[in-house]
Amino acid sequence: MSEYQYYDFRAVDRPLTKVQMAELRSISTRAEIGSTSFTNHYEWGDLKAEPLKLLEKYFDAFVYVTNWGEHDLYFRLPQNLVNAKDLKSSYPGRNTCIRKSGNCVVIAFESQIDGEEDWDDGTAWMGSLILLRSDLLRGDYRCLYLNWLYSIQEGTVREDTLEPPVPDGLGELSASLESLIEFMRIDEDLVRAAAAASSPSSAGPSEAELADWIQGLSERDKNDLLLAAATDSGDHWRNELLRLFQEQWTSARHSTGQRRTVGELLAAARLFSQERERLWEEEQAAKAARKKAKEEADRVVYLDQLAKREDAAWDEVTTYIKTTQPSGYERAVLLLIDLHDLAVRQEDETGFHFKLETLRNTHAKKEVFLRRLTEAKLWPEATTKLR
Q: Which of 84, 155, 256, 304 is the 20 to 30 A CA-CA neighbour of 360?
């Protein structure tokens, strides 16, 4: 396979009409098209349309995956529910693309890893990422902060740049946010460093907090919200209410908070990485120690059993040698090593060496076997005459 591209478009706010589905079919005869989706993959060739134009005209979410390491995620949001200008100024960076297009706002999450070896076909990503669109509509901008982290990971933001306000709940990530970290290939140590300054997520505003905030709204804002509640289908009006509250509440909480620089975040991430490496090395050392202890304990049990049949074991050595086969010589030498360890344990190396010397003299013409003995170094003055 020379190349692979996967396209996955989804409609969330409204299903596709029959006319729209026919228009999409004219673009691709082999794509899977449903009332809310358009998916296709290419191993040769390309999509015969501009993906972002399809997103803006028909869909609300788009995932693009290639086998050369490109991972892209796009959301189309109603312009009246998202303040594109504020979001763009809050999350600067080359990888944070937020732009207006007609009556909608397009937010892009783009990641490129050159020479990626372990690529996947992309089919599972949309299901794990699409809920992030609902997060954005509710004013939960943790995904944008994570996208900004990817920008500083790629070195596209100056180290003296201050971070955006750290959203609550960055240390309590949802499954969708965890998937975004994996999709974007964001350094988990960098996420941990950023989350150190994040407050725990709350269950949402209390009824009293909402009542006080609504009381302070202008008459026009209240009327707009009531009109939306009476005429909108779905949860758009509720999302807008919570988004407005969240933005003002979060802004007030973070207005006096100390913000870190990109350089400070990167330095903190390096410390987390070093600590993680240290803990990993300690864990590996502990595993090795446990393995060694088990092997030593097993060796003791084995030598105890060998002691009960020591004479028979010497007979087995002779039997293996008489096969005059390399495999037999190998088994004979391995058993002699065991008998040597048993002699050391019983403090009877002299007896072992006497038996071994007798064995060598008996089989003096078996040069291959004697060479194996020489290599095993089972006696103090191992002979070096045979080569």
A: 304
Q: Can you give the pTM of this predicted structure?
A: 0.70
pLDDT at 224 exceeding the cut of 50: yes
Both structure tokens of 89: 């100024």
Q: Are 60 and 36 in contact (CB under 8 A)?
A: no
Yes or no: say if 84 and 99 are a contact pair by the CB < 8 Å rule.
yes
**Cβ–Cβ under 8 Å, residues 75 and 106:** yes
DSSP string, 266-298: HHHHHHHHHHHHHHHHHHHHHHHHHHHHHHHHH
CA atoms within 13 A on the CB side of 377: 0
Side chain identity at residue 223, one-letter code: N
DSSP-based three-state secondary structure for 265: helix
Count CB neighbours of 239 within 10 A: 20
Instruction: Identify the band that residue 387 occupies on the pLDDT scale cut at 50, 70 and 90.
Output: very low
* DSSP states of 122-144: STTHHHHHTHHHHHHHTT--HHH
Tell me the pLDDT band of 240, cut-offs 50, 70 and 90: low
pLDDT value at residue 214: 78
Q: Rounded CA gap, 380 and 250, in Å?
A: 78
For 125-133, what is the mean pLDDT? 96
Where along the chain do its domains lie? 5-201+261-276, 309-376
* Identity of residue 351: G
Checking phi first, is residue 204 left (phi over 0); if not, alpha (psi -120 to 50) or beta?
A: left
- Range scoring the smallest mean pLDDT among 6-15, 60-69, 97-106: 97-106
Residue 382 has pLDDT above 60, yes or no: no
- Tokens representing 214 are 């609504």
Q: What pLDDT score was predicted for residue 202? A: 63
Choose among 95, 94, 91, 54: nearest CA to 76: 54
**Nearest-angstrom CA–CA distance, 186 and 170:** 14
Residue 9 to residue 77: CA distance in whole angstroms: 14
List own/partner pairs for 205-208 with CB under 8 A and 24 or more apart.
205/242, 205/245, 205/246, 205/249
Coil/strand/helix, residue 163: coil
Beta carbons within 8 Å of 180's beta carbon, 6+ residues apart: 73, 109, 129, 132, 143, 146, 147, 186
pLDDT digits (tens, 9 = 90+) for 181-192: 999 999 999 999
